[in-house]
Write a structure and sequence with these properties.
By secondary structure, this protein is mostly helical. It is 58% helix and 0% strand. The protein is globular, with a radius of gyration of 17 Å. This is Citrate synthase.
Amino acid sequence: MMGFDSPQMQELMRLYVTIHRIAKVGMSVPILVASALSDPYLSFAAALNGLAGPLHGLPNQEVLLWSKTVVEECGENTTTEQLKDHVWKTLNSGKAVPGFGHGVLRKTDPRYTCQREFALKHLPNDPLFQLVKNPWPDVDAHSGVFLSYYGLTEARYYTVLLKRFGY
């Protein structure tokens, strides 16, 4: 329906939807609201509104935009030292580096690992994918990179995409 009919994009969307459906807000909020015997539509609306916040609806968009600033400032062949400097620049400005060091993760997110396998198979040389490194990348560390790579370049649409598929 969105005009993306390549087999790789279809494979990505199957992976993307499966991985992103596992979300605490998207699953727990409607159950909580429904437990008060609220109308099912109100329960669904509550879940969507909960996902609209920046901690659930925007991370993959923020990661993509941050990664693009790295490539813009450092070039497509960013060295580890340049990346390290850019990370410190971001942190010293009082901002977090999106998609990394999730508060509860002390190991790599297994949903990230599934996406990494996809990336190694289909876009191993993409400069934005090359930026995704430890510490402890989470599910959003490169999901936006994939969408952009396959032509869904309007990052503001990513939150809508997540809501549409139940994230």
